[in-house]
User: Which sequence fits this backbone?
């Protein structure tokens, strides 16, 4: 027993000895590991972080024994570094990962939301990498991914997020461990990366490559993926047909599919949805899927919760397939907007009401009412039926009983009667849009009794009368009010001005009276848009407008305002549009307007402003940054009646207004000739911009025009007419390269017209009449194409289009000479002249009758001709010759009429159609003399006759070996035809767009291998010559951009050629400048 006790104590001693040794060894190991981690992390800070503006890494110091207390570092219970989380630290530098991948215990790396640029994302050879999760999203990575990047070396990765960078492409590697790969919102143009990912996705369950620049056809399906549950390829540039089995080939695990915002053009019924038993989200919106039939196997997707097929070509004027869609019992979100569905809303669709929360059927051609079965849609939150042809009282019988509705949109329908007060039953309502219907009567006074959450109310474009309801002022959450284009009278209720969240107050085109009170933006919200033009408002502009620092659009034009323009407007740095025209404002123009650094549109015409033009007005030139009013719906009524119109035109906010209502508006008819342009506001510059519209006409402004006005390089309209300005026209106006309208008429200007104006290629309207100008009208550019009336009443001006200089003769000389002629001679001459006139009239009548018979025969023939699918032609009875200046063109087409072109194209039949483009259709035509030409029939571009003729005259002067000659042009009514030399070998587009002939060219361009596109025999030792070839190639690919809206116009193409500065006599381009399309 005693011996056993001794052995027991000896064993215990040895255990304690070894435990102590292990503890010392473990402690030593941890100390060494921590020391290594400190060193490696400090190396990372030294090599990768150039700036730490927030001081987040200040406690990363060399005297630390462990990094576990450092900001952004997380350690395990054993003190080992496992996570580096530097999200949104604002760090700036060049990223080097090698210091971090050397951390043997680091598993999670999160550097999201910094400003790291691409450095070295590779892992040293033969070095292990233990990273499992890497998030480098929202940085400035801009280099292609190397084949040696961490994606290749870190074989334990499960999660990689490189989204929101500028990565153009490169090489990726998908390891068996990788489950999620996010490359979205980069600049990847090489679709080979996607092809590799789909072919080697192994165990990926998420692949996100949305919002890149991948183009061409999508040729691969996810057939190799075993576990894929989500794939997002939206916002790319894919074209052509989607592989029909793309969904069917996906694994049964697929739950989320987003292919929206591409240009897939498959027949919708050709898509095979296979089993799709787990699919819950599908978005195919903003493509070109077409047809009236839905895929039959779509019904297999029983678990669908979100269906978005909007912005396609579905329906083909057929009904919505209610029976199919009504079987999705879990459906929450359904959007079929912007398609071609017609007929009634199918009652079967109401079978989804048990779960449906969002329904959008807008922008179709639906008729009738919302079926009563939708009364069971108790979960419905958003209903959009806008821009259809719906009618009836379904707002009262159905919609108003859906108490959980938060958003009701039914604009642009045919709903009539009173605005239903029963809509107040929707107590959760946030937005109500009833614009452009046929509502009459008063706006209900109890509108805000239950609308405690109401944020937006849009009732524009109806026929409402009475006063503006003060009760809307009780909706304290209101942000946006639009009551425009009604017949509301009286004052704007004072309660509106004190709404705490009000940002948009739009009530133009009514009959409002009263004043805008002092205290706006002081007692209430900080307004962004204040649009009250075309009313009867009086009083002055309140000085408190200076407090509206969020203001971007102010329109108080066409009222009865008096007083001065408050100098405090200069505080509005975000103000982009200021319209105060057609009032009775007086005093000097406030120089503080030059402080409005975002101002692009200033219209102060038809007031009583006096004093000089403030030089501060041009201080913002080159400093304007775009963005504040981008995407706003607008209409511009351009006055084209010359001096009989006051001002250059009027800009109006156009959200929720039917075009036909505007066409009948008195403002449009205040000028003998007007033209309406509408659309979304888009800036014509990306940076360093200037004002684009300046109208100060019909005031009492005096002094000289400053040379600094020529620095407004993006100015398109400048109207200083009908003032008292003196001095010379600044020669710097020649720098206004974007100018289209220049009106300096009815002033007291003197001196010469600067020759620099001849270089203004886009000048479409010039008026310098009624001044004291002298000298010869410059012959360059388009100055001689304007009518004489634009130069009249300048006693010293001469030259085309006015009489030639030095041609004036003394009329008395001829008067006295006539007295010596015998009376008999005059009688003989008179009788002879009378007889000749009679004979000429007889011959003319005979020829007219003869031609009329021919024309009638030609009309009968032409009217029997077939027409293309998009064209319908009928002659007016008078064939119109080509409107060309014969001297302009190298090969003029003489005596060619519109009827001849119809006959040569067989009535513009489909058989003659050889191509279509963004600006129209192209037809092949053989004229009677055997000449073969190409005729482009332009789409309606809203261009005036004079603008069109001036542009064609300019293009006709171009002689360049790389441009197809324009042989002539024709205009008849609203139609515009261009006649080009026919290219029998096809166009450049047909070669470079063809996948077999030239698809490789685009691919090489995307890979920055342009030198391989050109035949080596074309390249020489002359570097300047080679540079010219590559520049031609750049122009060619710009013309063939996959996004039509990015393609340059012909004018822009010629401007690009001008940049080459070719000096050969045959390649001279005269006066063409590049303009950015809006």
Assistant:
């Amino acid at each position: 027993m005693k011996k056993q006790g001794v052995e027991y104590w000896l064993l215990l001693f040895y255990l304690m000895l070894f435990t102590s040794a292990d503890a010392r060894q473990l402690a030593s190991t941890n100390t060494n590991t921590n020391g290594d981690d400190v060193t490696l992390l400090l190396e990372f800070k030294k090599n990768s972080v150039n700036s730490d503006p927030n001081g987040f890494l200040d406690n990363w110091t060399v005297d630390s024994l462990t990094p576990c207390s450092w900001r952004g570092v997380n350690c395990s219970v054993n003190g080992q570094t496992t996570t580096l989380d530097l999200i949104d630290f604002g760090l700036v530098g060049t990223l080097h990962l090698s210091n971090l991948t050397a951390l043997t215990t680091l598993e999670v790396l999160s550097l999201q939301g910094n400003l790291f640029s691409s450095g070295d994302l590779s892992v040293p050879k033969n070095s292990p990498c233990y990273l499992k999760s890497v998030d480098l999203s929202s940085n400035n990575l801009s280099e292609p991914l190397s084949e040696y990047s961490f994606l290749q070396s870190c074989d334990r990765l499960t999660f990689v997020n490189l989204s929101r960078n500028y990565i153009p492409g490169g090489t990726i590697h998908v390891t068996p461990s990788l489950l999620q790969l996010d490359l979205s919102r980069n600049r990847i143009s090489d679709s080979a990366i996607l092809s590799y990912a789909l072919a080697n996705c192994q165990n990926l369950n998420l692949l996100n490559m949305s919002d890149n620049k991948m183009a061409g056809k999508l040729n691969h399906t996810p057939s190799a993926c075993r576990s894929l549950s989500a794939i997002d390829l939206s916002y790319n540039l894919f074209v052509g047909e989607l592989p029909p089995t793309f969904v069917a080939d996906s694994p049964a695990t697929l739950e989320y599919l987003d292919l929206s915002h591409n240009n897939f053009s498959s027949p919708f019924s050709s898509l095979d949805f296979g089993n799709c038993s787990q699919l819950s989200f599908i978005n195919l919106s903003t493509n070109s899927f077409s047809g009236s039939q839905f895929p039959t196997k779509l019904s297999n997707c029983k678990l669908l919760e979100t269906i978005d097929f909007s912005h396609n070509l579905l329906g083909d004027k057929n009904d919505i397939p209610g029976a199919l869609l009504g079987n999705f019992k879990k459906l929450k979100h359904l959007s079929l907007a912007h398609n071609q569905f017609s007929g009634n809303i199918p009652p079967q669709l109401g079978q989804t009401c048990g779960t449906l929360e969002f329904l959008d059927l807008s922008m179709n051609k639906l008729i009738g009412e919302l079926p009563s079965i939708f009364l069971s849609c108790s979960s419905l939150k958003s209903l959009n039926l806008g821009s259809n042809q719906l009618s009836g009282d379904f707002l009262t019988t159905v919609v108003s009983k859906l108490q959980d509705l938060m958003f009701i949109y039914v604009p642009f329908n045919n709903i009539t009667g009173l605005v239903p007060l029963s809509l107040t039953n929707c107590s959760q309502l946030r937005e109500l849009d009833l614009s452009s219907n046929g509502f009459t009567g008063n706006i209900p006074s109890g509108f805000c009794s239950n609308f405690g959450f109401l944020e937006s109310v849009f009732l524009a474009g109806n026929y409402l009368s009475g006063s503006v309801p003060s009760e809307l002022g009780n909706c304290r959450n209101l942000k946006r009010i639009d009551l425009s284009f009604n017949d509301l009278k009286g004052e704007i209720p004072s309660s509106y001005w004190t709404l705490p969240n009000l940002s948009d107050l739009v009530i133009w085109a009514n009959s409002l009276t009263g004043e805008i009170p002092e205290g706006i933006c002081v007692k209430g919200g900080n307004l962004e848009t204040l649009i009250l033009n075309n009313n009867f408002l009086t009083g002055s502009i309140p000085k408190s407008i200076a407090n509206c620092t969020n203001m971007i659009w102010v329109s108080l034009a066409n009222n009865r305002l008096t007083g001065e323009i408050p100098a405090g407007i200069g505080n509005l740095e975000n103000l982009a549009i200021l319209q105060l025209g057609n009032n009775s404002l007086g005093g000097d123009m406030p120089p503080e307007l030059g402080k409005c650094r975002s101002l692009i549109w200033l219209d102060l015409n038809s007031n009583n402003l006096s004093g000089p033009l403030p030089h501060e007005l041009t201080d913002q030139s080159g400093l304007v940054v775009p963005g504040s009013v981008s995407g706003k719906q607008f209409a511009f009524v351009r006055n084209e009646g010359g001096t009989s119109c006051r001002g250059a035109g009027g800009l109006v906010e156009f959200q929720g207004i039917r075009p036909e209502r505007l066409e009948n508006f008195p403002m449009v008819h205040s000028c003998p000739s007007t033209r309406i342009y509408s659309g979304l506001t888009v800036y014509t510059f990306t940076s360093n911009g200037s004002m684009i519209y300046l109208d100060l006409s019909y005031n009492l402004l005096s002094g000289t025009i400053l040379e600094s006005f020529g620095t407004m390089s993006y100015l398109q309209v400048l109207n200083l007419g009908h003032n008292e300005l003196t001095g010379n026209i600044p020669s710097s106006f020649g720098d206004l390269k974007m100018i289209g309208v220049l009106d300096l008429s009815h002033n007291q200007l003197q001196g010469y017209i600067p020759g620099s104006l001849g270089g203004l290629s886009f000048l479409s309207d010039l008026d310098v009449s009624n001044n004291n100008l002298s000298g010869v009208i410059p012959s360059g550019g388009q100055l001689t194409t304007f009518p004489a009336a634009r130069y009249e009443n300048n006693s010293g001006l001469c030259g085309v289009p006015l009489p030639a200089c030095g041609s004036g003769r003394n009329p008395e000389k001829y008067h006295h000479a006539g007295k010596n002629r015998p009376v008999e001679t005059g009688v003989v001459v008179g009788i002879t002249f009378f007889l000749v006139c009679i004979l000429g009239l007889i011959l003319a009548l005979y020829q007219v009758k003869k031609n009329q018979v021919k024309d009638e025969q030609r009309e009968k023939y032409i009217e029997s001709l077939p027409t293309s699918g998009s064209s319908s032609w009928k002659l007016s009875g008078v064939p119109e010759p080509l409107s060309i200046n014969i001297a302009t063109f190298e090969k003029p087409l003489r005596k060619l009429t519109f009827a001849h072109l119809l006959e040569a194209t067989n009535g513009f039949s489909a058989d003659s159609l050889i191509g279509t483009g963004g600006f129209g259709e192209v037809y092949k035509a053989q004229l009677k003399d055997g000449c073969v030409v190409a005729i482009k029939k332009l789409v309606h571009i809203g261009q005036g006759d004079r603008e069109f003729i001036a542009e064609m005259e300019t293009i006709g002067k171009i002689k360049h070996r790389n441009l197809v000659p324009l042989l002539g042009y024709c205009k008849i009514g609203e139609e515009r035809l261009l006649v080009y030399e026919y290219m029998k070998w096809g166009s450049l587009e047909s070669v470079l767009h063809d996948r077999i002939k030239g698809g490789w060219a685009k691919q090489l361009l995307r890979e920055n291998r342009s030198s391989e596109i050109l035949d080596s025999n074309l390249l020489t030792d002359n570097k300047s010559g080679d540079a010219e070839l590559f520049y031609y190639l750049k122009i060619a690919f710009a013309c063939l951009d996959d996004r039509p809206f990015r393609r340059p116009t012909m004018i822009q193409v010629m401007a690009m050629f001008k940049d080459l500065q070719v000096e050969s006599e045959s390649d001279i381009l005269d006066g063409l400048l590049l303009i950015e399309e809006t």
Observations:
- The mean pLDDT is 81.
